[in-house]
Amino acid sequence: xxxxxxxxxxxxxxxxxxxxxxxxxxxxxxxxxxxxxxxxxxxxxxxxxxxxxxxxxxxxxxxxxxxxxxxxxxxxxxxxxxxxxxxxxxxxxxxxxxxxxxxxxxxxxxxxxxxxxxxxxxxxxxxxxxxxxxxxxxxxxxxxxxxxxxxxxxxxxxxxxxxxxxxxxxxxxxxxxxxxxxxxxxxxxxxxxxxxxxxxxxxxxxxxxxxxxxxxxxxxxxxxxxxxxxxxxxxxxxxxxxxxxxxxxxxxxxxxxxxxxxxxxxxxxxxxxxxxxxxxxxxxxxxxxxxxxxxxxxxxxxxxxxxxxxxxxxxxxxxxxxxxxxxxxxxxxxxxxxxxxxxxxxxxxxxxxxxxxxxxxxxxxxxxxxxxxxxxxxxxxxxxxxxxxxxxxxxxxxxxxxxxxxxxxxxxxxxxxxxxxxxxxxxxxxxxxxxxxxxxxxxxxxxxxxxxxxxxxxxxxxxxxxxxxxxxxxxxxxxxxxxxxxxxxxxxxxxxxxxxxxxxxxxxxxxxxxxxxxxxxxxxxxxxxxxxxxxxxxxxxxxxxxxxxxxx
Length: 552
What we know:
The structure is a single chain. With about 550 residues, the protein is an alpha+beta fold. It folds into three domains: about 1-305, Rossmann fold, CATH 3.40.50.1820; about 310-400, Immunoglobulins (Immunoglobulin-like, Sandwich); about 425-550, Sandwich (Jelly Rolls), CATH 2.60.120.260. The protein contains ten helices and 26 strands. The protein has helices at about 1-15, 30-35, 100-110, 145-160, 180-190, 210-215, 220-230, 260-265, 285-300, 425-430, and strands at about 45-50, 55-65, 70-80, 85-90, 110-115, 165-175, 195-200, 245-250, 270-275, 310, 315, 320-330, 335-340, 355, 360, 365-370, 375-385, 390, 395, 440, 450-460, 470-480, 480-490, 500-505, 510-520, 530-550. The longest helix is centred in the N-terminal third of the chain and has 18 residues, at about 145-160.
């Protein structure tokens, strides 16, 4: 309690220095008593029914902003005849307008579900705040667009409490991306929430995020980041929140970077869970997508808990590093693995090596692949349903533990998620909405290759280790000899132009190998992109694409 008082005092001092009076007794921005006091004036404007799911279009009052009334449009769905159901608010990815996809999805699972139009320009809610334009803070955070989105969600929970279809003691929240950001924020603000589950979105964004740092330059100074951290950022409130919360994300998410999500998980005081998928960006596998909502089932419907894992520890054993972690819980563990990535920074573009772990007597162990660079390790167990429980990130410096290596990083293929264009590779590309070529059953390796037609075509993301030499290789063939161009580019901090490498290659009727040496720049984003340019009236096949550390 003393730590919380000190923290509140420090935040209040910062706001006071900026001329902002604290909003309430326990939160310097969100005065719950005042926000929840006005009448909702709720009304249903339309009701429909399909396949046993009732959907209502509703409006309710959120707040007054000067002379402007901010009123919220929402879709509310539930199984016909349902009463005292568990419920959740769904927050759309990108804060898109409310749709019936997720409300129907939740209602089919036995929930009452509310999805709002945030008070954004052109939406059915009023207000017109440009919430997704960035992490705007302003002089007074209570005038920031993000603030009005949070108020709308507080009132959305109040609306659910008024409905006979809802058990007010079993209300949760879920969301994706921007919706996950708000879900994390609300878990710290609103004690009425009994569970929160977030895809991608997190707090501690002062540690790095695409809006402020995506260009490779830090566009906000330390003072601004401190003010953000102590006002609108979701993480600090979780220290005093007991709401069970879970995060599910890829290790290479473009918007919310690993240091931010790891620190936010560490700060959460209530029951918590973390699932990280190696070399995935802003998408989730089918199993993990199901796991997002199973977290709600656990805390709102009494389903069996996920497996809990201890933090991973790494020790020197003989001449190598070995990672250890333990697990417990009611679900059967089917597998375990360790993911490892090398170097510091460049969270968007780094490759993660996956190592199978040994399971024995409630514990897991795996050898950390040798490398001289510092590395980040994450342990995980996978249960019989395919649900993954991940440990927090741990940074390891091999030299400090007395382990030597002959290479900076172990061998890997930074195009390994897609470079063979096999069925699972194409599924990965489509899940992420990455460029997805048509495939051919003529292959250099495996069963499929990619068809690239005339013109300039982007390749999917290429992962590596910043500052370490790599070699890009691929195999190509054509029905007639053609000259194509391969190009790689990557950003470097402080440079107006990306680093690039190009080569022209004569492709014949037999499989032809092509290779480019490339040094991924040291960059907070660290992305490497590739393109292939095919001349008019031609097409080529490409297969066996790789991006490996160069051993020359």
